[in-house]
């Protein structure tokens, strides 16, 4: 269940971030930042368990 919530959140964040991009380079940076946020959330969730 938690994995599903994290995955859904990542998809929503990615969609929002990608809609704000104007260039391919900007898209790459935005995707990287989104991935970092997902990793941070995963680490925090793992620490709570």
UniProtKB/TrEMBL annotation:
InterPro entries: Entericidin. The keyword Lipoprotein applies. This is Small secreted protein. It comes from the Bacteria. Belongs to the EcnA/EcnB lipoprotein family. Residues 1-19 form the signal peptide. GO terms for biological process: response to toxic substance. It holds the Pfam family Entericidin. Keywords: Cell membrane, Lipoprotein, Membrane, Palmitate, Signal. One of its GO terms (cellular component) is membrane.
């Amino acid at each position: 269940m938690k994995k599903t919530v994290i995955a859904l959140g990542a998809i929503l964040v990615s969609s929002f971030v990608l809609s704000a991009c104007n260039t391919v380079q900007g898209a790459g940076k935005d995707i990287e930042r989104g991935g970092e946020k997902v990793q941070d959330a995963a680490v925090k969730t793992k620490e709570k368990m």
